[in-house]
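Lab notebook, design round three. We kept the backbone fixed and only want residue identities now. Task for the bench partner: fill in a sequence for the structure below.
Input structure tokens:
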């Protein structure tokens, strides 16, 4: 069966093509990501606009990480018409538009390895479980450096510092303005805790739309930085001895327009649904970690002492816990949410949102009990105190995290067998390359004495 647009979609396409012509769009970019979250793009010329929107564009899937094998390589990038976006010329230098794409096989079927589809599939499972919306709001941190070869700090500022210490204020401001031009709502931005580290927070919205926005956000941050002869990186821990970059993800479930995480009579304003959801996250987080924190470098951030959570617990104002209850608007139904503090901004947002949702739904399904709240600083506890409270630790290395995922039936179900096996294979290769690499540390400390 070939790809066939509906009557409504064909009407949409006519309207889009009209806007494209009126705005003299010269290139349409078709965006999608591989299983690691790396952005891929096809550029379509004006002669092919109508065909691309109706039929999609074929490409070699065997060249994309985690996609098809050589003998099943032909795939089609079919634009999701709802994601049509014209880019301001001051960002791209030319009249360009963009679509996010769904990846199809040549006979029109859904390709199982498409990360965007995987999130859609888990959102469908959420609907089946009786919920309408999975709302998320990520806080992405990143660093500005002079280039992509060195980690020279560009300022000496800290948390919430402004000019003159925050020398990159103008770059961050222009980035915010560009995001708003792209209809990506920004709540606020600020200088982060470490020198040269920044954060721009996006307004809470539905998970699939937010995953698309995260990909666009990261692209815009990098492009604006390049305009100022700087390099922006979302690497989790680029510099030893200072805080790394996280992606704290605020999240909640809605049904019939109401936040089902809220219970005004509970001491923490949490419903039983929310408590079971948190319990699901805490129960399965070790199995999720290779997805939410997918790089060797990710585990150099998840160590005590640098505001990154290493211990599996939940609390309110406690930033040493894995899951936190934001208190800015405590007691307000719409604002009730949890904050998962373990993911980092180098993850694939589609898969990360999918595994957190899947773990939370599993907690609700099983009615998992929530462990007691932790209000004390876990970083200051002894191992014996943590053991007495039942507080476990996150995996310490990618190798450990990958093995936990490898044995997880839950993650296999969430990702689907194709992506699950491709992802595990990729992480095995990454760890083996890292394990056999001889580092500068080894040369410095061992060569002259051994």
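Proposed sequence:
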């Amino acid at each position: 069966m070939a790809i066939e647009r509906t009557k409504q979609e064909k009407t949409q396409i006519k309207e889009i093509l009209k806007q494209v012509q009126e705005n003299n769009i010269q290139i349409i970019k078709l965006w999608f990501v591989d299983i690691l979250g790396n952005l891929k793009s096809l550029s379509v010329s004006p002669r092919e606009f109508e065909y691309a929107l109706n039929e999609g564009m074929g490409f070699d899937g065997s060249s994309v990480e985690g996609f098809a094998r050589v003998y099943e390589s032909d795939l089609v990038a079919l634009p999701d018409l709802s994601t049509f976006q014209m880019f301001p010329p001051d960002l791209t230098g030319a009249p360009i538009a963009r679509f996010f794409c769904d990846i199809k096989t040549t006979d029109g079927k859904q390709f199982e390895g498409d990360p965007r589809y995987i999130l859609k599939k888990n959102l469908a499972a959420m609907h089946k479980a009786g919920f309408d919306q999975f709302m998320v709001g990520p806080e992405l941190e990143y660093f500005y450096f002079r280039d992509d070869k060195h980690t020279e700090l560009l300022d000496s500022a800290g948390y919430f510092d402004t000019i003159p210490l925050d020398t990159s204020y103008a770059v961050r401001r222009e980035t915010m303005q560009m995001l708003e031009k792209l209809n990506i709502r920004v709540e606020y931005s600020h200088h982060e805790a470490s020198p040269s580290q920044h954060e721009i927070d996006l307004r809470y919205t539905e998970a699939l739309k937010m995953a698309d926005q995260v990909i666009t956000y990261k692209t815009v941050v990098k492009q604006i930085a390049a305009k100022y002869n700087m390099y922006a990186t979302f690497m989790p821990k680029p510099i030893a001895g200072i805080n790394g970059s996280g992606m704290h993800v605020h999240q909640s479930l809605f049904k019939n327009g109401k936040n089902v995480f809220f219970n005004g009579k509970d001491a923490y304003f949490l419903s039983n649904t929310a408590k079971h959801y948190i319990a699901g996250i805490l129960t399965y987080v070790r199995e999720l970690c290779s997805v939410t924190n997918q790089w060797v470098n990710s585990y150099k951030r998840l160590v005590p002492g640098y505001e990154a959570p290493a211990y599996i617990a939940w609390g309110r104002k406690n930033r040493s816990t894995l899951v936190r209850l934001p208190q800015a608007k405590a007691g307000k139904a719409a604002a009730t949410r949890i904050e998962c503090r373990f993911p980092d901004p180098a993850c694939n947002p589609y898969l990360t949102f999918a595994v957190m949702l899947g773990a939370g739904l599993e907690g609700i399904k099983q009615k998992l009990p929530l462990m007691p709240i932790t209000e004390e600083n876990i970083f200051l506890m002894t191992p014996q105190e943590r053991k007495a409270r039942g507080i476990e630790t996150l995996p310490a290395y990618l190798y450990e995290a990958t093995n936990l995922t490898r044995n997880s039936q839950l993650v296999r179900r969430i990702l689907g067998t194709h992506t699950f096996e491709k992802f595990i294979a990729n992480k095995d290769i990454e760890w083996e390359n890292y394990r056999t690499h001889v580092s500068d540390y080894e040369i410095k400390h061992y060569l002259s004495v051994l």
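Keep this in mind before ordering anything: The domain at 7-111 is CATH 3.10.20.70 (Ubiquitin-like (UB roll)).
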